[in-house]
Write a structure and sequence with these properties.
InterPro entries: ADC_synthase, Chorismate_C
Structural class: alpha+beta
Pfam family, one: Chorismate_bind
Number of helices: 7
Organism: Euzebyella marina
Shape: globular
Protein name: Isochorismate synthase
Helix content: 25-40%
CATH class: Alpha Beta
Domain Chorismate-utilising enzyme C-terminal: 98-361
Distance between the termini: 28 Å
Largest sheet: 10 strands, antiparallel
Number of strands: 20
CATH superfamily: Anthranilate synthase
Length: 369
């Protein structure tokens, strides 16, 4: 299949207002699309289902599932290059003014200093004009962010979302689970390694400790890697990889403990989530939720080791799950783009600096408009 045929089929499916998702995994060149031939809204009930899950920030809300009627795959795709600087000078209007966000951050810092919270992640929305077709915007994401999970999701009863997220929530292959803690943000400067301050290192430490505590009774042989700097497009983050063996295929239990992580919510989880819902002033919907392949089948061809079957192979069918946190995303509503951005607030946070960080993060999505 050629790229032209691949995208024509997606465009045709969208024109019928039928559900689909198309995505590319980090550091991969191939594209995969799941097409659903009815507008039925399926939901994940127990994480035994198979398909593509699109889950909201609020774990009490419905988790949407696209069940594949048809799967399209493009083995390799090289998107057309473009210079994002040409598109950065656009009129982005803030939903809620700057003063509101500065007061919100200051209230969070006060609450932290009073001992009610250790950390809370606060966000806001920017509005921009989206005059290009959604699939054209998706192709620009592919061109800019090769080391992110890039996706376009559409369901007529949910809406149209696209994004480029650097953060894996979890990956399960056979019984092996891998996740990561990701926190801290610095702009990428060509040829320079980032210099991390106490605020970013402390924020990262909170996230790592939370994940380790949350998973200690859910997985065995828990192991945390070393702290490292990870680049995502024009940004740097601090990252720690964490792995172990999942017990009894209890994916629902693991996700209940993990989501929302301190990287998108805060600590303690219940208190920070309550602060967000009471003070942020808008509904995040699927921003800082998670998305990805759920219990998908993977076929492997393996050579037989039997001496009399040296040239024969056999098929091994495995199920795997790979979920990503829905960061760096936008929602398209007619010709308007709603860009979601946020940042982690700790006792040492400065409101003006936190505002500047959201501006920096917004460029991931605003650069494609």
């Amino acid at each position: 299949m050629t790229p032209e045929v691949f995208f024509d089929q997606l465009e045709n499916h969208l024109s019928k207002e039928l559900p689909l998702v198309v995505y590319r995994k980090p550091m991969k060149s191939g594209l995969r699309a799941l097409l659903q031939n009815t507008d039925t809204l399926y939901e994940v009930k127990n994480f035994k289902e198979s398909g593509f899950v699109f889950a909201p920030f609020d774990s009490q809300s419905r988790k949407v599932l696209i069940q594949s009627s048809e799967m399209l795959e493009l083995a390799s795709y090289s998107p057309k290059k473009f210079e994002p600087e040409e598109y950065l000078d656009i009129d982005l209007k803030n939903v809620g003014n700057k003063d509101h966000h500065l007061r919100l951050v200051q209230n969070a810092v006060s609450s932290i200093k009073q001992g009610h919270l250790k950390k809370v992640v606060l966000s806001r929305i920017l509005k921009g004009q989206a005059t290009m077709k959604p699939l054209s915007l998706f192709q620009r994401l592919l061109a800019l962010y090769s080391n992110a999970f890039c996706y376009l999701f559409y369901h007529p009863k949910v809406g149209l979302w696209l994004g480029a997220t650097p953060e894996i929530l979890l990956q399960v292959k056979n019984n092996r689970l891998t996740t990561m803690s990701l926190a801290g943000t610095k702009p990428y400067v060509n040829g320079q390694e980032p210099e991390w301050g106490e605020k970013e290192i402390l924020e990262q430490k909170y996230v790592t400790e939370y994940i380790e505590e949350a998973l200690k009774n859910e997985i065995s042989e828990l192991n945390s890697g070393s702290l490292e700097s990870a680049r995502s497009g024009k940004l740097w983050h601090l990252r720690t990889k964490i792995s172990g063996n999942i017990e009894n295929q209890n994916l629902e239990g693991v996700l209940e403990k993990l989501h929302p992580t301190p990287a998108v919510c805060g600590l303690p989880k219940l208190e920070s989530k309550a602060f967000i819902l009471e003070n942020e002033g808008y509904d995040r919907q699927f921003y800082t939720g998670y998305l990805g392949e759920l219990n998908m089948k993977q076929e492997k061809m393996r050579s037989s080791r039997r001496a009399n079957q040296e040239n024969q192979v056999y098929r091994s069918i495995n199920r795997f799950t790979e979920l990503f946190v829905n960061l760096r995303c936008m929602q398209l509503v007619k010709d308007q783009a709603l860009i979601y951005v946020g940042g982690g607030i700790t006792a040492g946070s400065d409101p003006e600096n936190e505002w500047d960080e959201t501006v920096l993060k917004s460029k991931t999505m605003s650069s494609i408009l």
